[in-house]
Amino acid sequence: MSSVYKPENVIRLGKDFVWPGDKKVAVVIDVAYECWSDGSYSGIGPMGNVLKPGFIDNNAISWGRYGVLQGIHRVLRILKQHNAKASFMTNGVIAELYPADVKQVFEEGHDIYGHSYAMDVIPTYLDQSAEIANIKRTTDLIVNACGYTPKGWISPRLTGSSKTSELLIENGYKWHSDCMDDDLPYLEKYPTGDIMAIPFTMEINDMPHSVRYGNSPGELVHDFLKTIDWMTKFEPNATLMNFTAHTHVYGRPAGALVFDQLIELASNRTDIWLTTREQVYEYAKKYF
């Protein structure tokens, strides 16, 4: 029986799969480099009280704007200090407004993957023609900014439409991360071609941890260490996880120091593969 809970077009990796160097755990550093369309803004902000409907929330606009003005530069400095490479989910509007900064991200050796035109442009809300236009617009803006054509994609909220994977294939994409249903990459097969799904994890993520649930940033270090220790000691098979910093959240000093600690801790471990999504794609594709 066909079901969304048992897709028939998927090929998954076997239990004998291991990462380079026979490592059981691969860890990706993800950076959410996000912005909203002009006239739109984040529905999440540092203030607990939501404004009445119909009023512009300049507090939320200013909070979100920090990421493209200050947060991105602090995040890049931290990554450079540790000689670490990250995967940057990048909105097309940032490439449009701040092309020099997107070019710097690329030139410093980080992954760039498409993240829709803006955070308010969510594929599942779009009809097919609008979604095609959004993919093309986002791709072209990133190419214009840094000369690189992204191979990977992640939708805002990881919420693609029922057609997103096929439309990405038609536009030359090789992988996406609109998925949280496995511990390893898997292959989606369609009549027009294949695309790899590289799962995204939300547990070690500054947005839900500190903004939505109000936890102290420092607690994320504890959670990360406990998770890695458990995965490397007790998980019988290979796994993939990521930790994520948003430039407008942990790009701020109180969060950046935690991002700094997470990278240092991950970089010093010899029992994990600290990698990027692009490297995961290149390594895993030979197993399908």
Topology of helices and strands:
Blueprint: E1 10-12, E2 25-33, H1 58-81, E3 87-90, H2 92-97, H3 99-107, E4 111-114, H4 128-146, E5 152-153, H5 164-170, E6 175-176, E7 186-190, E8 193-197, H6 206-212, H7 217-234, E9 239-246, H8 253-267, E10 272-275, H9 277-284
Parallel strand pairs: 2-3, 2-9, 2-10, 3-4, 5-6, 6-8
Antiparallel strand pairs: 1-7, 7-8
Helix pairs in contact: 1-8, 3-4, 7-8
Q: Could you give me the name of the CATH homologous superfamily?
A: Glycoside hydrolase/deacetylase
Largest sheet: 5 strands, mixed
Q: Taking all residues together, what is the mean pLDDT?
A: 94
CATH architecture: Alpha-Beta Barrel
Question: What does this protein look like?
Answer:
The protein is of the alpha/beta class and 288 residues long. The chain has a single domain, classed as Glycoside hydrolase/deacetylase (TIM Barrel), CATH 3.20.20. The protein is 39% helix and 16% strand. The chain is built from nine helices and ten strands. The chain has helices at 58-81, 92-97, 99-107, 128-146, 164-170, 206-212, 217-234, 253-267, 277-284; strands at 10-12, 25-33, 87-90, 111-114, 152-153, 175-176, 186-190, 193-197, 239-246, 272-275. The strands form two sheets. The chain has a five-stranded mixed β-sheet, with helices on both faces. Helix 5 (164-170) links the parallel strand 5 and strand 6. Helix 1 runs parallel beside helix 8 (253-267) and helix 3 crosses helix 4.
